[in-house]
Sequence to fold (819 residues):
Amino acid sequence: MAGTLPSAGPGPQRLTVDLGASEGPVMLGANGALYGLGDDGVPSDAALEPLKITSISQKPEGGAQHPNGDALTVSRSFFRNGGGEILVMMQDVYAEWPYEDLGIDDYLSRVDRIVEEVTADPNRDRFVYIPFNEPDQIWYRLDVSGQAEYEANRDRFFQDWKAVYRRIRAIDPAARIAGPNEAAYHSRLLRDFLAFARRENVLPQVMTWHELDSGSLRDFQAHYDDYRALEREAGIAPLRVNIDEYANRRDLSVPGQLVQWVSMFERNKVYANAAYWDAAGNLSGHVVRANIPNGGWWFFRWYAGLTGDTVQVTPPRPSAVDTLQGLASLDSARRQAQVLLGGSAGDCDVVIREVPGSVFGRTVTVVVAEAAWSGYEGRHAAPRVLARTKLPVAEDGSVTVPLHGMDRMSAYRIVLTPGGSGTPTAPLVPFSASYEAEDAAITDGEVTTLGTVENANGYAASGTKDVASLNRPTSKVDFTVTVPHDGTYDLAILYGNQSGAPATQRLSVDAGAPVTVTYPSTQNWAYRARKELPVHLAAGTHVLTLAKGSAEVTLDRIDLTARTGEPTASYEATLADIGGRPSYDYSSSADVGTGALVLRPGDRAVFDVYAPCDGYYTVRPRASAAVELALHGATVTAAPERPLRLYLVAGNNRVSVTAGHASVRSLDVSGDGSTSGTLTYAAASARLTGGAELVESAYASSGSYIGRLGNSPSSAAEFTVRAPGSGRHLLVVHYAHNDRRDNGHAYNTDIMSRTADITVGDGTPVTVTFKNTWSPDDYWTVGVPVELEEGVNKVTFRNATAWAPNIDRIELGRVVHRP
Fold:
């Protein structure tokens, strides 16, 4: 973990940022995903909107390649959350992989249907057609070495490209078309393709190809430069470029890997969509469940927060695999500079040059935060602030920010703002230590190696290794740990659970009485999740033992972090999303240090607030005057410094702040999700009709759940709830299901969602999507805002045409708790 800001020590790497060398406006092109959306609501609106996604790639409506991810279906949530454009992978209309080749006439008939459906959509101009996917390998074999064979295959592809292109344009004359969309960069093919496409007037509007190898971190710049040279050679004006599949399994979810990819794409102002190696609907491994951030999500949230122009960044080793890389921005209007960096362990001096005195003055406030790797399915709280200090700008116009002990899997953000009066409050950075399972004492387990440069499509693992095959009665891992003082420590376990149900291990400290640790299911044994629980330790050295319980659990790493009190987070207003034209006030560097956001009528600030679980939290706006908070459709006025008790859902919550005229420094949130004052109703309390039934289960919270709900107009589950007062509530549904359709793709997990129509009283039903929970015995939650009347309310679940999820229980909490 990067430390504070004393002297840098001997031999740190150097990353240089030149604020005087603009690369043009921040584009945010590299935040897309292939099959990043699974269904309307998967991922949630609160997980989508903050990322400001510019493009995604999805299959045609009703395409047989996967059971979900249909472009028109997911467009509803994508567009309402500010999404840019959707690339339609037209050949995903076919079921097989590689695609079954039934001839061009068969394909053209399918093209007709796809284009007719898109052109009927009111957002037709926001779709881009990709006629062929990886034609260098599929159908045409354009990657062959023999010139004669290549030319024969090339000519057949070119004729089919022309036929499909013209068929699309015949139906939709304004269509935007992308291609040729090779699996890898091929200079020979692209030279020929550009000449042919220009001559035949079938030039794509978007140039696409894939970068799917670790070597792309080294080679992409050369590929891009070569492509632009080919355009000039062909006399073609620069086309938009979208690298519509990038990165490997070992990169996804890992902030330190992602910064390497994103920095090179943003520097070249190209769009890019991360690859789809596993399950649809989690933004290529960056959203846990449907609404919970992991470390990768926070990196992309930081990326979405860049404003103004990107500026030149010089890393120690440009275009090198797995090295320190970065990107940076300068917004002179907001008087902010931001640097995102990562990809290497050790120490680093970040030298920020040409710091404009007219923007920042003679001192700057520097805030450093870390987004760590938490696994694909491991939740990550708001990134921890590691340092907050005020530094002078040197005579040569530079500021040097030293970072110590960086983790290669983490990304770091440095924010510079003008240094006002006063002293920023130094953050409390608790003791934390990490211990690799492969370095511990292992009994009846096996060390395995996962994602590496050589095995790029292996899953990410801390230190590239884990301990698997802990499946014998005597299997255990003994971690020797040392802590500095007596107290409670948060133990986080990076694990994989391949059993298909919740699994357990026995945790003991110094061979004492064991306690049971229960691990929710994961997609597979290598798909990392994060289990957190408290342990009390005396100062000194201890042995923490994780021994086999029920089923089998793979162990990767444990983290121990000293608990310093109630969990708290401070969200700076100057870094929030804004609406209107608020002003930025940096006259004081006290408190969070980055200044204040001045809101007037028509302005707003939107904060992304993390909650570890569903429940009540204390939310305190630090403002100079009264402000109004909006959350889950409820609004409340808060006097300055007045704490509020608000209900937050597990994961990300979008909290909007407006004011008549107020200077807002931060939104401070504390607590761990109290359920005091909530209403809880078990499955057995519902009235069931139409075949819905109560099913006994040892995994359900009260021993049973509602099953066989839906698939008939008469099937329903009706809960009678008694609200102590009228108003906006969060209905939290605890549910499970494991619908899948195996399409025979070895590297895709074709999970499916279920839906339920939820009605409160005589109101209009609301259709809610419930993502697959990896097993039928793991219960997740979805929060649905509802209006309740004081007294008795009926809450009814139905699905007339398909199965609804199994329901364990429901909880209701008023959004704004009024004592």
